[in-house]
Structures are given as C-alpha cells and as structure tokens.
Amino acid sequence: MKKVFVSRPIFPDVIDRLRRYFEVDAHDGLALPADEIAARLADKDGAFIAGDPVGAKAIEGAPNLKVVSNMAVGYNNFDMQAFNAHGVLGTNTPDVLNETTADFGWALMMATARRITESEHFLRLGKWKEWSYDAFTGSDIYGSTLGVIGMGRIGQALARRARGFSMRVIYHNRSRVAPEIEAELNAEYASKEDLLKRADHVVLVVPYSAESHHTIGEAELALMKPSATLTNIARGGIVDDAALIDALRRKQIAAAGLDVFEGEPNFNRNFLTLSNVVLTPHIASASEATRRAMANLAADNLIAGLGEGPRAGNPPNPINPDVLKK
Question: Which is an annotated GO molecular function term of this record (predicted)?
C-alpha cells in the first residue's frame, strides 16, 4: 500500500477517505519545521500539504515521492523547479474558494473604509460618551472607484460585486482579460500607475512570484490618494509591509485591510501600533463549506495522482501537467 503524509490537522472524514487507498501518516499538531517535513516525506509516495513549504531538500530526500497536493490555490510554498527536476507532480485547489474569498475581500475592504475595527475597539474600551458629527468618518464604497490588481477568478468575482454598489471598476493584470469579460464586469483596463492614482479602494488579488514581490511598495503607495484604502487578500510579499506601515503612520493613505503578511504568522508587529489598519489571520477562504471543498479537492488530486480512485492517473488540478506525460 502506498504511503502518504498529511502535514496539518484536517477534517477527519477526509483522512478517512485517504485511508481507503493509502497508509496515512497524519500530523495532528502545529506546523512542522521544514526539516521535519522533509524527514516525514522520506519514505512517502505522496503528500497532502496545507501551505507548508516543500523545497528541493525535501524532494531530493524522498525518492518514492510522486505527488504533493496543496490545499490552497497559490503554490509559492512549492519549489516547482525541484518538482519538475525529480518528476514530482504538484496540484492545487482553484475555483472552489473564489466566491468565499471575494466575499471576505469585500467585507475587509468595507471594514477598512468605514473604520469598523477602530470604532469597535473605541466602544469596547468604554470611550464612547457622546455622539459627534465627525466620529470615525470614513470613506464611501457606493459610487466610488474600485481598483483591482489581478483580474483572475477572484478579481472578477470582486468586480461583479461592485455593480451592486454602483462603483466604477478599473483593473490591472499581466494581460487584459477578454473584451466580453470587460463588458460583463463594466471594467476598464489601466496601467498599475494609473489605477493607483485613480482608485478610491485598491484590492490586491495577484498570485505571489518573484515578479510580483513587492508589487506595492514605497513608490506605489506614494501614487495613491490620501483618502484611498488598500486591501490585500492575495499573498504576503505582494506588499512591502515596512513601507505600508510607514505610509499608514504618516497618513499617506487612509487605511489598509490585510489578511496576509510577509513572514506570516510572524508578521511585522508594528502593525499593532496603528489604528488605521484592519488585521485578520489569513482567513479569506474560511467558511466551513469552502474549507471542506478545498480539503476534498486536495484529496481528489492526491488519490488520482497516485493512480487510485475513479479518476486514477487524471488528477483534477495538476500544476505541472508535463510530469504526468512522463
């Protein structure tokens, strides 16, 4: 029987599914360090990974490893060069979290614009003594301009939501989307610089890569309106967190909403000194239904990738499908 490793606690019924086909080594504690993950992979044929790094050292030390299934859309935690060099298939879980993540991005943007976290803290601390015309005045969503950087599936889901708020939508992407999608979303393509200058609310939904590292830094923040907000539901590293902290401290932009951070969970603690930032711990896809869908899709990928189940040899979401041909 093939052996698989599961790197984090997941739904027990998903573990039971894997046990129908494999001998399962399921880690049930906190995140493991990279060297421990490498050790656990050494004799395995496959792995179910929940965002943990799988690098060249781990791949080279696991001669039987054939499939690593990521319970996430992004796969910057995988060293794909090593995967390809050693014939290891990587898989991910796109699509099943699009709408849930867009919902959360919208909620985070609204909480940021309307200063919800800041005002709740004020109330909880017993500081609310009287009504004031200028207490926690924020910025409107309705009728404003939404700037989406990254017009993939989630970016498009965000743009669809903008119609209900009569927003103007501008977007920047590595390449323009099809004209019919622009028409459906009533979205206008813009350069990154133009978008940053015009948008009232900027939302980041780009995958992380070496090219997208610090897509938003000091120079980009300087282009934004003083009244603008920035929301990041993409990946840590897309934003230069130190530059953002400085911009928020100086009120160069009005506020930011962040679900992801550089070096998470060891994020820059200076964010905690700021009142004009809403912080959440990487939970944009965290509805139970969506997390279950992600876990089951990751299991489908692993089972099929290792030649088992109804889709044997044909996993739904290969990242590097050329490995399958070999």
Answer: glyoxylate reductase (NADPH) activity
